[in-house]
Design brief:
Layout (H helix, E strand, L loop, with lengths): L7 H20 L20 H6 L26 H6 L6 E5 L3 H13 L2 H22 L11 E4 L4 H7 L3 H13 L2 E2 L4 E3 L11 H8 L3 E3 L1 H4 L3 E8 L4 H12 L4 E8 L1
Helix pairs in contact: 4-5, 5-7, 8-10
The structure holds zinc ion (2 copies).
Length: 259
């Protein structure tokens, strides 16, 4: 290549600049804010600012349900509800608090079907799951690989309206990373319920009664990991876990992106 009247270094710099402008917008954008990534080599496809904002919650929460304590630096410890009443599920994992950048990502994925964001969120979920498995020292969670991943289903009518079940897409990405089967048919929604977000906490469980049914042929005797994007009061997850247990699941763990 000929760069008349200029040194080789200047020519190469000019070429690199031209290539950079052509290539960067296609492949090196932060999956969270869509800003250009300053360089490659980071493990996550997010810029440094988003990486800080999207860092996992590592302390100050209950390891059974993800309830937050006041001190984010404190070691995870059981909350009063989990101590007194226990939970219907076995293991539990979540990535972070449902706020700020993480909330934007979840909503962008859910309502605009941004698959790059889905892949990123599923990566968070898998890492949270592996962390919880390592932390628990519980034999069944060791290695972090359940027999089957089951997403929380949408009612068919809502699926038609939205065209996209975010939990199923998360489960697909996570299944690929963990190397385990995804079984969307293991749990069916048999009643179209009022969206939980429109109800006060105490009405959420009764709203969901009988909403799900598990398929014994797919879950009986198996270790199930139930997947959802966000857990708020836990009523949806609790109802789904009960249905999986009724269908004979040997163990049901729960992994969500945000809490
Ligand atoms: Zn960013
Ligand atoms: Zn708890």
């Amino acid at each position: 290549m000929n760069f008349p009247g200029r040194g080789l270094a200047a020519g190469l710099a000019q070429l690199a600049g031209r290539l950079g402008r052509a290539v960067l917008p296609l492949c090196d954008r932060c999956q969270a804010c869509r800003g250009l990534l300053p360089g490659t080599g980071g493990r996550l496809p997010v810029c440094p600012a988003c990486a800080v904002e999207l860092a996992p919650r590592l302390g100050g929460f209950c390891p059974r349900c993800g309830a937050f304590g006041t001190n984010a630096e404190a070691a995870p410890g059981l909350c009063l509800d989990c101590l007194r009443l226990g939970r219907v599920w076995d293991g539990f994992a979540f990535h972070g608090r449902y706020e700020g950048r993480l909330r934007e990502l979840v909503l962008g994925f859910k309502f605009n079907s941004r698959l790059g964001q889905g892949r990123l969120l599923a990566g968070f979920l898998v890492e949270a799951w592996l962390r919880a498995a390592a932390r628990s020292g519980d034999g069944a969670m060791d290695g972090g690989v359940p027999d089957v991943l089951v997403p929380i289903p949408l009612h068919p009518r809502r699926l038609v309206w939205r065209g996209f079940n975010q939990s199923l897409e998360l489960a697909r990405f996570a299944g690929r990373e963990l190397g385990c089967a995804v079984c969307p048919g293991a749990l069916a929604r048999i009643r179209n319920t009022t969206p939980q977000s429109r109800l006060p906490g105490r009405e959420r469980l009764t709203n969901l009664a009988g909403a799900f049914v598990g398929d014994p042929a797919l879950v009986s005797g198996r270790h199930v990991l139930l997947i959802d994007d966000v857990m708020t009061t836990g009523a949806t997850v609790e109802t789904a876990v009960r249905s999986l247990r009724r269908a004979g699941a040997a163990r049901v763990d729960v992994a969500v992106v945000a809490r």
